[in-house]
Amino acid sequence: MRYRYLTIEREYGSGGTEIARELSKALHIPCYGHEILELTCERLGISEKKIEKYEETVTNSFLFSVFLMSNSVTGRSEPVAGEGQIYLHEQAVIRDLAAKGPAIFLGHCASEALRGVNGVLSVFIRADKAYKRARIQTAYGIDEKNVEATRKYYDKKRANYYYANTARRWDDFSGYDLVLDSGTLGAAGCVAALTGLMR
Questions:
Q1: Could you give the C-alpha distances from 166 to 34, 36, 51, 62, 141, in angstroms and in order?
Q2: β-strands 5-10, 31-32: how paired?
Q3: CA 12, CA 21: separation in Å to the nearest integer?
Q4: Count of helix runs (H) and strand runs (E) in the chain
């Protein structure tokens, strides 16, 4: 394969998870998303709810981000406490999974964990609001009156988490190798494009 690893960040409602799972089937390589969370919970002996709470309340401090990144690069986990420990363990889980072979990584700042590793393609999946609104209703069963608030909540959560742990804006497309519009291409079109690139 041309690329060994694919990292995907995505807007809520853009179908990024569906695209990643279908691509996994097409390429016959594993896709890790929620699995990263599960393995981190096992390592730390904490519940998923605690990690989700961290992701909701993570600091947006640039200085905290620099501190975390310096510890991540050197492999130090002390004296980082609380939320920093969670991030560092997630990054370690991603690197351990990558050591097993080619894979797709969904969210969790995976491109940061694999920085400096050869054969990584970093992708952002987006779509227009109308496409996302319709998909959030049909795919997730969210009532129409709650769609916009739900979309904003998850996008803000992802953006804050990404910035706090990378010191870069989640929606700054210059930080990715490729940006795909699932509203224009459709999920199948995105899978086809990525399959061609990966192979």
A1: 20, 18, 18, 9, 32
A2: unpaired
A3: 16
A4: 9, 5
186: tokens are 């459709």
For every one of its 199 residues, what pLDDT tens digit does the chain have, with 9 covering 90 and above? 789 999 999 999 999 999 999 999 999 999 999 999 999 999 988 888 877 777 666 655 444 545 555 555 555 544 444 566 788 889 999 999 999 999 999 999 999 999 999 999 999 999 999 999 999 999 999 999 999 999 999 999 999 889 888 889 999 999 999 999 999 999 999 999 999 999 8
Report the CATH number at residue 53. Answer: 3.40.50.300
The total of structural domains in the chain comes to 1
Alpha-carbon span 160 to 96, nearest angstrom: 25
Residue 173 DSSP code? G
What gap in Å lies between CA 53 and CA 56, rounded to an integer?
Answer: 5
Q: What is d(CA 128, CA 164) in angstroms, rounded to the nearest whole number?
A: 26
Lookup result for tokens 């600091």: 59
Give the span between the Cα atoms of 57 and 45, in whole angstroms: 20
**How is residue 44 written in tokens?**
């730390």
Structural domain for 66, as ranges: 5-198
